[in-house]
Design a protein that fits this description.
The chain has two domains: 2-134, Jelly Rolls, CATH 2.60.120; 145-224, Orthogonal Bundle (Arc Repressor Mutant, subunit A). It is 46% helix and 25% strand. The chain contains nine helices and twelve strands. Strands 1-8-3-6 form a four-stranded antiparallel sheet. Helix 4 (107-116) packs across helix 5, helix 5 (118-144) packs antiparallel against helix 6 and helix 7 (178-185) packs across helix 8 (189-201).
């Protein structure tokens, strides 16, 4: 199980089975229940987390005390790497949004792995650069766009992170709850409902329970990116 999961992690994807087995030997499995806090913003960071099962939300607290969701992560994603690299406190909090199982890798072991397999460090730089670009896009969306644009940009962010593409359409299998979407888009639940109705009336999205479909994803991105 650990080998299959590690192979899905971008920074470990180039390693062979023997090398992955070496890394897996350092990992500890830990389970978290829904709504359980995994790590706290500003606490000391000594662990890398790899999601085996479930989903988590990465959040920060605004100056006025509101929760701002930075990202939704699921199986195959990882977090906590920044504190491991610079030794500083956590930059965000992470909470399980459903029952989850994580692989934990201690800082000392992770640093040793980077020394043993230098190409992991290169892959890590590429992943961090990708995350920085996503953050820049999110900041631009929140600061420059109106409510419709912010909600649409949030859907694009989710599509890129957890969506499944098929024949030009995009499916987000488990759309976050409306309050979580509002926290991601910097708006209210009422605004989320209003914007969703507008997008559905224009044929730009479809909903089926917790699933959300974007029939023409490229067109959607052209309109709102």
């Amino acid at each position: 199980m650990e080998l299959f999961l590690l192979k899905k992690i971008p920074i470990f994807a180039s390693l062979n089975e023997k090398q992955l087995s070496h890394i897996a030997s350092y990992c500890v499995i830990k389970k978290y229940s829904k709504d359980q806090l995994i790590l706290v913003e500003e606490e000391a960071g000594k662990t890398l987390f790899i999601i085996s099962k479930g989903r988590v939300k990465v959040t920060r607290t605004s100056d006025d005390g509101r929760e701002v969701i930075l990202s939704i992560l699921e199986s195959g994603d990882f977090f906590g790497e920044m504190s491991l690299l610079d030794g500083k406190t956590r930059s965000a909090s992470v909470t399980a949004i459903e029952d989850s199982e994580l692989l934990l890798l201690r800082r000392g072991d992770f640093i040793q792995i980077l020394e043993d397999f230098p190409k992991i460090a290169i892959a890590l730089l590429i992943e961090l650069a990708s995350r920085l670009r996503k953050s820049d896009t999110q900041i631009k969306s929140l600061s420059l766009q109106d409510a419709l644009g912010r909600v649409a940009s949030t859907l694009i962010l989710l599509a890129e992170e957890i969506g499944k593409s098929k024949h030009g359409s995009m499916q987000i299998p488990k759309i976050p709850l409306q309050q979580d979407l509002a926290n991601m888009a910097g708006t209210s639940r009422e605004t989320i409902s209003r914007v969703f109705r507008s997008l559905e009336n224009d044929g730009l999205i479809r909903r089926q329970g917790r699933k959300l479909y974007i029939p023409d994803y490229e067109k959607f991105k052209m309109i709102f990116s």
